[in-house]
Amino acid sequence: MHAYYFDNLPTDQRLPHITDPARPVSPEALTKLGVLSWVVPVDGHEGGVDEADDDFEVNRVAKERGYKNRDVINVSREGMGSVYEEKIRGFFEEHMHEDEEIRYILSGSGFFDVREMPTDAWIRIAVTPGDLLVLPAGIYHRFTLDTKDQIRALRLFKDEPKWIPHARSAGTDANAHRVGYLRDIGAGIAPAVGA
Predict the structure, then answer these.
(1) Do residues 123 and 116 make contact, with C-beta atoms less than 8 angstroms apart?
(2) In which pathway does it act (predicted)?
(3) Is 93 labelled as part of a ligand binding site?
(4) What does the domain layout of the chain look like in residue ranges?
């Protein structure tokens, strides 16, 4: 996993978008934003993760964080068929969730972009097989594939599998999960009255 500031140039979202000079972001800086990560080798788990394997780090993290359900998503033209273009556009729209987003990359590669607080700058996180990433509820983020156009990931859920994006707006700025997230990271930012 490699994190750095996004260059904001209006080119293909699937390109790395590394600033010149590069401005890397440390794991400690991500942790301050509530973003957690591990590297867990995929060897032998490319097809998925056996829930009964208590020694496997992904299962340990899932149990520790209260994840009871899981599925595997194949984000590619072949895996998504006719909804591929629509889904890719939707994934790259800035949004938040009211639940943590946890992904374990089984194959392929892509980028998660998260908003740094309080600067509101984009931080790009490049993910490859073996990366386990947790984005906290309430963080503004987006996702895109890289130019290889394929990623396969294990998704973990506390309850029934769901993925409900809330597009950034005055309403999401005032959402209890967003406000709680800002409080938890010590951003000290409150939504505008009446927003």
Answers:
(1) yes
(2) Amino-acid biosynthesis; L-methionine biosynthesis via salvage pathway; L-methionine from S-methyl-5-thio-alpha-D-ribose 1-phosphate: step 5/6
(3) no
(4) 2-184
* Residue 101: Cβ-neighbour burial (10 angstroms; 0-12, 13-18, 19+): buried
Q: Find out whether 166 is annotated in a ligand binding site.
A: no
Would you list the DSSP string of 139-178? --EEEEE-TT--EEEEEEESSS-----EESSHHHHT-HHH
Q: Where does 2-184 sit in CATH, by number? A: 2.60.120.10
Please check the confidence at residue 194 and state whether its pLDDT lies above 50.
no
Per residue in 50-66, pLDDT (tens digit) is 887 878 999 999 999 99
Residue 95, marked binder: yes
Query: For the chain, what percentages of helix, strand and coil (3-state, to nearest 5) are there?
Result: 25, 30, 45
CB 160 within 8 A of CB 69: yes
